[in-house]
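User: Structure tokens for this complex, please. No commentary.
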Amino acid sequence: MGLAGAATAYEILARLILGPEHVPPLSAVVPEALRLLTGERFWTATGRTLAAVAVGLVIALVAGILAGFALGSVPQVRRATSSTLDFLRPVPSIVLIPVLVLVLDVRQITVLLVAVSCFWIVVFQVLYGLRDVDRVAVETARAFRLGRLARIVHVTWPTVLPYLGTALRLIVSVALALALTGGLVMGAAGLGEMIWSSQESGESTGMYALVLLTGGLGIGLDQLARLAERRLLHWHVATRREAVA
Amino acid sequence: MKALGYALGLPAVLVAAWWVASDGSTNVFLPPLRTIVEAFGDVWFSDTFVSDVVPSLWRLAAGYAIALAAGVVPGFVIGRWAVPRALTGPLLAYFRVLPAPVLIPVLLVAVGIGDATKLIVITVGAVWPILLNTADGVRAADEVGLETAAAYRLPRRTRHLLVLRGASPQIFAGARQALGLSIILMVVSEMLMSTDGLGFTVVQFQRSFAIPQMWSGVLLIGLLGFGLAKLFELVERRALRWHRGHTGQLTERP
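Assistant:
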């Protein structure tokens, strides 16, 4: 009902106040969106954007987990690096665009942007997770003469995993945003570029339709990330409680 | 003393390494750090500061301030009462996942080029983490505290303040996320549709192959992001001094 109300309000606003040539009403945008969905162009663009998202995410996860464990396991290393990490984290990765444009092609840059931004999120989540490891559990494992590797597998990893689940949910939306930014700012082939070019050629209905569909893509990715998190953490208390409730 | 050594050690080593390694660099794209630092002084301690840095900072501050107001107030209403929550639920879920940079072309068509568009981009992009976190925080308000307040017949205003205070750690978490987002949106919107500002200037340097100047701009944006994050941390720590997570060891949790 809320959705219907918002749709009606938007329709009236677009038709009467803002003017349909600037803000196309929903009744024009939805058919256009459906038309796009049946066309090939939309799917190739979506495929390219998703490919950039996927590659960037994999790089960020692998590099982030390795770096997080390497930094977090040795107290001296962690202390020595923490100020540098604090400095680098808030630096928005898009400042790299002008630098990278000179040396790489836009496709690689998009992937790199996704990877760099998500990398920090993963590293910090791993570090928080490592800080949360139960001392008693570690000592118990030591007492049972578990080796370093076994301790990581049975004690450390399960503690870090929920933090990685949260990281996963965060990085999926960040990755999508950056993959689209790559298209908008640099014209890397994909949905962002498609939206930008329809804006430049004055096809505002098509652009609104694309934005509408992009939101749908966002919902899909978010659901996927939640599903993956639940799968990954099916043994965890929070997930089990959720299942019962 | 030892803590200071730990904090400054690695950065000093890294900067020194960059300085030394790049000193003899003849690669056009990777100029020596010495040149970049010189360019930094020339470019940013001059008129450019007034013509480009100030507008950027102004947009950032105004956009972020509006996002705060536009996030906390509706977030409070949505979190506190079930009817607005039910009505806005699906719409909010949609806007939460819609990537903010995509709004730039939309607003370009709807509002046109100008300061207003950049402000709206920053506001519209940064408002969601604040709004959603406020709503969640308000919703999770302490039941016992509220019932006690009702039993003592505390005025309605006081009860609202009680809820808001309880939600404030989460509101701050959203505001922190929004700050990073605002900087990104400020730079991106200036890269795409501006005639001044940091994002515009950096792209302009890159297009005219003024590489050391471009690097100095990149450094400046980086420093800005870092400085604002530190400032935010300071404000947060003062405002949330009463909160458990801040009185003991500072452990951040998602």
